[in-house]
């Protein structure tokens, strides 16, 4: 199960992890919908391209990889996942923001790994819309992480205008009236 668009849904993707025993070009990518590490995508691009075009291949960024490494292919993926190896590693936030804001990625952006309830609200702010929480945590409790704050002040990926531009105020107070009020 994953959280997608603030709802708990069945996860139809499997995540392929690389290991030291296999090189990126030697890893076998199983059938079905698979999220492959970025290194595997680069090493097997020609083989995987037809499956990507059919919507069966996603890509996984590790925290030390850069979104620019995928800039020519980014729009072709139905899902891009970003790994959080530990909850205190914030590099995934920058990867997500850059995928959305600089590269214009509009597909599913998924946070995986050490993803906790306390992070979900902030992850959504930088562009994540799907979350694979830690398996040892209650996913139903994690969804409540979106309700922590009712309003945001700053602009970000999921809210383009800051609060002062969204707020509707009744009447305007003149500078003179404001000065009189403060004295």
TrEMBL record:
Domain of life: Bacteria
InterPro entries (alphabetical): UCP030820
Annotated protein name in UniProt: Uncharacterized conserved protein, DUF934 family
Species whose genome carries this gene: Nitrosomonas marina
């Amino acid at each position: 199960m994953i959280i997608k668009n603030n709802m708990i849904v069945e996860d139809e993707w499997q995540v392929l992890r690389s290991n030291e025993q296999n090189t990126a070009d030697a890893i076998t990518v199983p059938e079905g919908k698979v999220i492959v590490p970025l290194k595997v995508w680069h090493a097997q691009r020609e083989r995987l391209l037809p499956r990507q075009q059919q919507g069966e291949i996603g890509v996984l960024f590790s925290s030390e990889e850069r979104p620019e490494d995928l800039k020519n292919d980014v729009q072709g993926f139905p899902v891009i996942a970003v790994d959080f190896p530990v909850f205190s590693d914030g590099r995934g936030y920058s990867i997500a923001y850059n995928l959305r804001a600089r590269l214009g990625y509009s597909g599913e952006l998924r946070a995986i790994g050490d993803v906790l309830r306390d992070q979900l609200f902030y992850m959504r702010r930088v562009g994540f819309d799907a979350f694979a929480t830690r398996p040892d945590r209650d996913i139903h409790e994690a969804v409540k992480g979106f309700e922590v704050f009712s309003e945001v002040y700053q602009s970000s990926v999921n809210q383009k205008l800051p609060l002062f531009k969204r707020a509707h105020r009744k009447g305007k107070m003149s500078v003179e009236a404001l000065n009189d009020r403060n004295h």
